[in-house]
Request: fold
Amino acid sequence: MIYRNKRQQTKDPGGFFTFEDKSSNTRLTGFGHGEYILLRDQLGNVWKGCAERGDDDRVRYTFRDSGGHMVTGVADGYGLVLRDDKGKIWRGFID
Reply:
């Protein structure tokens, strides 16, 4: 009997991320899928995060940097909105 590998498509959310804070014109860009997402800001800080899919097709994102700052948010079919611990709102999209 011959066995062949079946390629399984994952339903993990991900791709190329771009976020922008309109008040300070700061950008976060990066890539990743599911449990491993890596972003960088304009100052060179690295943000590591993950994505968790909910029951209603919404995805919750959580990112942390080395300084202990955290950014969380929710994505639906139209875009992505994050809020940091200082109350700044980051809007973005996924390619």
